[in-house]
Amino acid sequence: MRRIAILICAAIAGFTVMVVGQPYVIPTNPVAIAATPPIEVPFEKEWARSGHADANAESFTHWNAETPPEIPVACAKCHSTYGYQDFLGVDGSAVGTVDKPAPVGSVITCVACHNEATIKMTSVMMPSGVEIKGLGSEARCMQCHQGRESKISVDKAIADAGVGPDEVSDKLTFRNIHYYAATATKYGTLAKGGYEYDGQKYDGNFVHVEGFSTCVQCHNPHTLELNLQACVTCHPGVTTPEQVRDIRMAGSLMDYDGDGNTQEGIYYELQGLRDMLYQAIQAYAIQVTQSAIAYDPAVYPYFFADTNSNGVADADEARFDNAFKRWTPRLLKAAYNYQTSLKDPGAYMHGGKYIIQLLYDSIADLNTVLIQPIDLSKAHRIDYGHFAGSEEAFRHWDETGAVPAACSKCHSSEGLPLYVRDKATITQPPANGFNCATCHNDLTTFTLYEVKQVEFPSGAVIDSGDPNTNLCMECHQGRESTVSVNRLVKDLPPDEVSDKLRFLNIHYFAAGATRFGTEAKGAYEYEGKTYVGLFAHAPEFSSCVSCHPAHGLQVRFEACGKCHAGVASEEDLVNIRLAAADYDGDGDTAEGVAGEIATMRELLYPALQNYSAAKTGVQIAYHPSVYPYFFADTNGNGMVDADEARFDNAFNKWTPRLLKAAYNFQYATKDPGAFTHNPKYVLQVLYDSLEDIGADVSKMTRP
Predict the structure, then answer these.
(1) Tens of pLDDT along 154-210?
(2) N or C terminus of the chain: which is more exposed, having fewer CB within 10 Å?
């Protein structure tokens, strides 16, 4: 190994370093340095070929010609060892801040990352003000690779300007995320490094799979190079950094940029959306600000007045004194996201779906005022359910930072395999949707975890005969049942209000319970009634994955058309009819069974309201997406208004009869595919609920 370089000694003289596990104080006196026996520095050769060691790079020489030649306080932390030491406080200064400019001439040396402060570091404060905690050695990297702006700072700049979304203001200037903001990309909405549009939801931390979720697990910490040898284990043929751009997994099936190519790597999906955003930015600038704009990725401040309107920043235009100045809030947000998508060159790996969402939303926002909007009709913002990391099913726990044991089996990436292996659930970190290891026990052969039988909330133990379907049913089974409802109501009189009662929620997409009907007892089954069991369908459509692709989850409607005439799209499925009976009593015997179920469910709602008003003195109202779903209808208008959809306004005048019917109303709502999973079972429980609560069922037919 090469001896320690004089340049390194000069840069870090006087600091204590660890050499082969032993403390060593580097002397400050040049004579002492010359007399000091040469020592070997671990990993010096690897470090020497990294960007951190490139003494000629712009990152370290940018300030050499300044007067005086020093690195400003705002830049010193990440562009010199001196500044990083200052930030850490190991030089005796305050911790967490840079107190003074740093001298030029240093790179990022050993002691920048290896010292008493960094070895204890477990968190990082992002520019948004969000602190990311529970980190390991990657915290050292994230102090600099986090960017310098955020949604928070962009919103503040806009608020300070005090103008409308499309008003030009000389108080606005471009906000630059800065370079290599990998942490902002990786942690997504948890860090809020991109400009996130109000009302939209975004992906969180992209953890990849176990063993590849931190900076140093994917990058050699000294050379900074990608660990390609590990990549090829799951991504065959990826042997060069360029080939990483071609990676696309089964959890990314959407055509994000709408170009018709769903085989290209995520890198190219980002590129396609970015090109669309640039078109939107340029069209908006001309239309709204009456000034053409152009971009140069290598010249600050990046966006310039396009004086000749040729669409590019020519050499004579890419000058500081020609910086674009006619910013509006809407344009600033979009340009910020455009830059964010470019300045982390590994964004497609670090958090590609987060960047996809930022780009898509930026285009959509500009489109609201463009005379000729950019066509997003074929583009996509999010994935199918299991991989839609931005959605409530996975983002619900961001504020607390942990998915509780009661939810983690189905709402984290690690909960299901733990349950399958050990029949246990524990608190898990919030996930960005499922990953490969959620269902696959081997990431080279991609075999699935084998589940021989499934225990449902009712206590029923069911084997579908297909281990893959059993695996799906571990989550798609609901969380309540006839048994739990009966356990709660016990022997209470059917129409007696009791403060011991509360709404029991079947939960979402309980398709497994619906399909097995009375065998699973997922819906509330009334005493003295009989109910159908498994809806077997045709033999070739007897498993979950025979009707739904395992990754996409959409319906294979093309196969349905073989038996059901007229089914040419997924929308046509609601027209399928199994029998001539008029179940809902509306006189329409030609409508699909989905329509029969919908009418019964629609009739059950006013029946619930009439009963609650008459028997409890409080009218009930329902909101399908706000927990706990049923609320007191304080103004009696029949719906849940914004001021009523509050937890402290939850309906609390339950009787056993009302609870049973409301449970089944929710059941029929929360399995949107019930009409295909087991239509007769759902019709039976809706009919019985209507009958029990006092609705007129005289014209209806119970299957």
Answers:
(1) 999 999 999 999 999 999 999 999 999 999 999 999 999 999 999 999 999 999 888
(2) N
